[in-house]
Amino acid sequence: MRILTVVGARPQFVKAAAVSRILRREHREILVHTGQHYDHGLSQVFFDELEMAPPDYNLKVGSGSHGHQTGQMLVRIEDVLLQERPDAVLVYGDTNSTLAAALAAAKLHIPVAHVEAGLRSFNPAMPEEINRRLTDHLSQILFAPTAAATAQLGREGIAAGVHQVGDVMYDILQANLERSRACSRLRAALGLEAGRYVLATIHRAENTDDPERLRAILEAFSAIDLPVLWPMHPRTRARIGQFGLEPLLAAAPQLRVVEPVGYLDMLALEAQARLILTDSGGVQKEAYLLAVPCLTVRGETEWIETVSSGWNRLVAAEPAAIALAVTGCTRPAEHPAHYGDGNAARRIVEVLERHFAVAVPA
Ligand code: UD1
Ligand code: UDP
């Protein structure tokens, strides 16, 4: 079985790590990095920490408008597919890299397998919602992480090829949690006490690209009565500069802005935070898996189980709303296993083996 995996952005390196390890050991995997994320701290650090093989191809597409970035990826992925002719193309999540790979493969009649199928925010303005809907409808094999995702695919008329396997982020979290505790020194180096700080991440376009909204988030984070550690995505940093909002950061002594951190530091920081404030899909899910209360600065979430179980709350990008939510944050008594059992990657490979004649590579 020859599987061509396409990744490009930070969360995709994390998601692919668990599956790639098995594929490379037992089959043939061709790993393509689109180059959507290219800074060391958003890309190479994940390959190093998660001991991933280097990509077979780096398409070096880089940043750009949606059309430009997705178009460049489409052209370059098509070339690779024509050369490699894999049995299937494996894609993850909902980024521009996901959609470009699915579209290139579908047009060449190469089956597409989508990990994290069936997630929806029902917010049509969100670029990820466009990417994930189209990718699901271009896929032959759909790996849904949850019962809700499987049901959503059914409502959209997709029943064949759907496999509910659990969430690959749980696999990789389980495999690395102890290691992260043992080797991460960042919290102590920053002088933060376990259980006495808030961990924040913000990068969604809806929060970063509107100056008033970004200002409100900065004001809200500045007013929190605990140290707030904020590994800042370059998109957010760029917008803060562009909108002239740096003085707000400088005036908030308890706000600790750092560069994006590697996966092991991130896991350790998440696990010991009092509370996580985020707009990231992956971070909401990790907060849940680590049983750390989370506030999500968005109007909706794809990860609805985190909210229905009481561990995650949606909060408006307004200082008063965030302050109220931070003080009212509690830890529910129940913590159901919504995201599988940590064996999603193995199930994904088994499904692929059933679909494609298992020819072990020479
Ligand atoms: C992308 C995904 C988003 C995902 C996120 C994970 C899309 C539409 N968005 O958002 O779904 O949640 O990745 O982090 O695919 N930049 C750098 N260095 C880098 C990469 C980006 O400085 O290595 C800066 C550039 O200014 C760039 C901006 O960040 O223009 C946005 O990058 P881009 O990949 O377009 O989108 P993200 O916001 O990272
Ligand atoms: N992450 C990380 N360092 C950071 C921020 C996030 O290692 O500074 C990890 C996080 O633990 C999760 C993944 O990146 O595994 C989530 O990616 P991101 O928030 O960029 O994207 P999303 O999940 O929203 O698509």
From TrEMBL:
User: CDD domains of this UniProt entry?
Assistant: GTB_UDP-GlcNAc_2-Epimerase
Q: Where is the UDP-N-acetylglucosamine 2-epimerase domain?
A: 27-353
Return the EC number. Answer: 5.1.3.14
Keyword tags: Isomerase
Which InterPro entries does the record associate with it? UDP_GlcNAc_Epimerase_2_dom, WecB-like
GO molecular function per UniProt? UDP-N-acetylglucosamine 2-epimerase activity
Specify the enzyme's EC class, one word.
Answer: isomerase
The Swiss-Prot or TrEMBL record describes its family as follows: Belongs to the UDP-N-acetylglucosamine 2-epimerase family.
Would you tell me the protein name for this molecule?
A: UDP-N-acetylglucosamine 2-epimerase
